[in-house]
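Hey, quick one: can you model this chain's 3D structure?
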Amino acid sequence: MATAMDLMTTKVVTIRQTASVREALKTLDEFDVRHLPVLDERQELVGMLSDRDLLRLKRSQEVLSQPVSEVMSADVLAVTPVTDVVELIDLMAENRIGALPVLDNDSHLAGIVSYVDVLREAGRVLSDHEPLVTS
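Sure thing. Here's the predicted structure for all 135 residues.
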């Protein structure tokens, strides 16, 4: 069974907690990602920011100037590299989230698994099996 290590993206686009909301929007657009792990000055995970979080904000100069730490989700669910795909799916579905950061043994960001990664794996597994229903 696949694990987070098998599915995760290791070249993760991150943002500092002191960056502005404007910078976060630019980063999401520039790198074409939907989720940004938020790191502190020690490069430790302190939050997550999604494009959905930013869509909910009223766009004013004041909001755009706010630090990411003001709008990020600080209660971050994270997994380890050995978390299996079934648990990833359960966590994403139960918590209605689209990505999970993957932390190594030292609690440093090792990667991120998104719902797209999980769907790709599901498609691969399903294509390896014969259809359950025939026409």
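One thing worth noting: Residues 4-127 form a domain with the CBS-domain fold (CATH 3.10.580.10).
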